[in-house]
Design goal:
This is Glutamate--tRNA ligase. Helices cover about 45% and strands about 10% of the residues. It contains 20 helices and 13 strands. The protein starts with a strand and ends in a 6-residue tail after the last helix.
Length: about 500
């Protein structure tokens, strides 16, 4: 018995990886992680990263999905060196290679009808056998094939070796081996349409009988033509790999190395889905997550570098050499993602955060959010970025803190009753007068007015600052009072402080 192994793949070739999403929806988080690993591996070894769109599912593929995939890749900054390539634009190439396999005897036409195949499988099940194609139309020495039925469009099947085994050393799972006898003859091209068959005439040539190529075949031709050296993908493709290795060998094409990543599970241990929250990368951008946080978090879902939890894009590229990939399924943890995102929000510049918060601002503005210029918004972000997990949350917090204060709200009134103090009202009115006289509305000047008022009224800072915060911002705790007041328009700040006259 002979073995076929992908370990014979040359490691001397320039590293070339690819990600190949189907444009039938958003870029799924699992596919995004695959793209990230392929990108990081190529960048680590100074190789190439290719984007390929597998759009052969014409009924479900859309241009909108293509646009969302490309936008998600752009947001994650997973720059690709070649592509995007589209499989539907390569149909002529696939048919050309199928014709070569037919000519070399590695493929054949199969005229078994769907009804015949169903009956074949049913009989096999009745005998306690695994259902599979029985090779009726498979050419063999000294075998007489049935007569070709008139008016029937055949499929093309790959002539899978029946002896030996196919094995590879997986980058993630180690050695994997399949006995060739367990693999039946894969369909590599579907039938042509009835109209195409009629147009081909009574004696159609080979090319006229080759219909739409199938996924497992197209992938091999793509990886061959594009010189892919490392195929990193989800472990739902493990069963496809032995079939694809056989096709590579039939074509005399160099074998890539394979790595199959365990899936990402939801918190309940089931396959990640919409019920666990957003599953598309684009949705997380809209929710206010930073690309460096998503990259950081996705990278740790199945890979590690020691105990490092937080790392930059540059560090990932430096460390990601294909080792330390986990063979166990990862579990999506929204709380952990929020923690990682909070870290990167703290690291972000105030100018960048202001721009991102501004993107959420139109929605917030309809809810009474104040109008802030860019400089003021940047200062506001600086004060609150260490208290927010997303830029959306940061925008909401700023709206709540800087927006109108509802003194009729029961929660507010309870806080006011607790913190107003007997001496707060005269001090607040005096402070308002002192603030009105300031030549410049700056934190330093506001701080001096606060100190003078405290001294004049023999108060400690909490006795004045807490009721001040309630009047100006609607809550008893905020960052530094002088910094906070400076974010408000001076007249608005004074008007809010003077509402104390209506509360005494």
């Amino acid at each position: 018995m002979s073995d076929i192994s992908s370990s014979t793949a040359s490691t001397a070739r320039r590293v070339r990886t690819r990600v190949a999403p189907s444009p039938t929806g958003l870029l799924h988080l699992g596919t995004a992680r695959t793209a990230l690993y392929c990108w990081a591996y190529a960048r680590h070894f100074g190789g190439d990263f290719i984007l390929r769109i597998e759009d052969t599912d014409e009924a479900r593929s859309t241009q909108a999905a293509v646009d969302q995939i490309i936008e998600a890749m752009r947001w994650l900054e997973l720059d690709y060196d070649e592509g995007p390539f589209f499989q539907m634009q390569r149909m002529a190439r696939y048919r050309e290679v199928i014709a070569q396999l037919l000519s070399s005897g590695h493929a054949y036409f199969c005229y078994s009808s769907p009804a015949e195949l169903d009956a074949m499988r049913e009989a096999q099940r009745a005998r306690g056998e695994n259902p599979r194609y029985d090779g009726t139309w498979r050419p063999e020495p000294c075998k007489t094939l049935p007569p070709v039925p008139a008016g029937v469009a055949p499929v093309v099947r790959f002539r899978t070796p029946t002896e030996g085994s196919v094995a590879w050393t997986d980058l993630v799972k180690g050695e994997i081996r399949f006995a060739s006898e367990t693999l039946d003859d894969l369909i590599i091209a579907r039938p042509v349409s009835a109209q195409a068959l009629a147009d081909a005439g009574a004696q159609p040539d080979v090319a006229a009988l080759i219909g739409t190529p199938t996924y497992n075949f197209c992938v091999v031709v793509d990886d061959w033509d594009m010189g892919i050296t490392h195929v990193i993908r989800g472990d739902d493709h493990v069963n496809n790999t032995p079939r694809q290795i056989h096709i590579f060998n039939a074509l005399g094409a160099p074998l890539p190395q394979f790595g199959h990543l365990p899936m990402i599970l939801g918190q309940d241990g089931s396959k990640l889905s919409k019920r666990h929250g957003a599953v598309g990368v684009n949705q997380y951008e809209a929710l206010g997550y930073l690309p460096e946080a998503m990259l950081n978090y996705l990278a740790r879902l199945g890979w590690s570098h020691g105990d490092e939890e937080l790392f930059s894009r540059e560090q990932l590229v430096q460390w990601f050499d294909g080792s330390h990939l986990s063979s166990s399924a990862a579990q999506w943890d929204p709380a952990k993602l929020a923690w990682v995102n909070a870290h990167w929000i703290k690291q972000a510049s105030d100018a960048r955060l202001a721009q991102l918060v501004r993107a959420h601002w139109p929605l917030e503005a309809r809810q009474g959010a104040p109008v802030l210029d860019d400089a003021t918004l940047q200062r506001a972000c600086a004060l609150f970025k260490d208290r927010s997990s997303t830029t959306q949350e940061l925008a909401l917090t700023l709206r709540q803190v800087l927006g109108e204060v509802d003194t009729a709200d029961a929660t507010w009134q309870a806080a006011w009753a607790q913190h107003k103090g007997a001496d707060a009202a005269p001090a607040l009115l005096a402070l308002a007068d002192a603030l009105q006289a300031l030549p410049q509305w700056q934190p330093e000047a506001i701080q001096q007015a606060l100190k003078a008022t405290l001294q004049a009224h023999s108060l400690k800072m909490p006795q004045l600052a807490i009721p001040l915060r309630l009047l100006a911002f609607g809550r008893p705790q905020t960052p530094s009072v002088d910094q906070m007041l400076s974010l408000l328009d001076q007249k608005i700040a004074l008007d809010r402080l003077r509402t104390v006259k209506n509360l005494v």
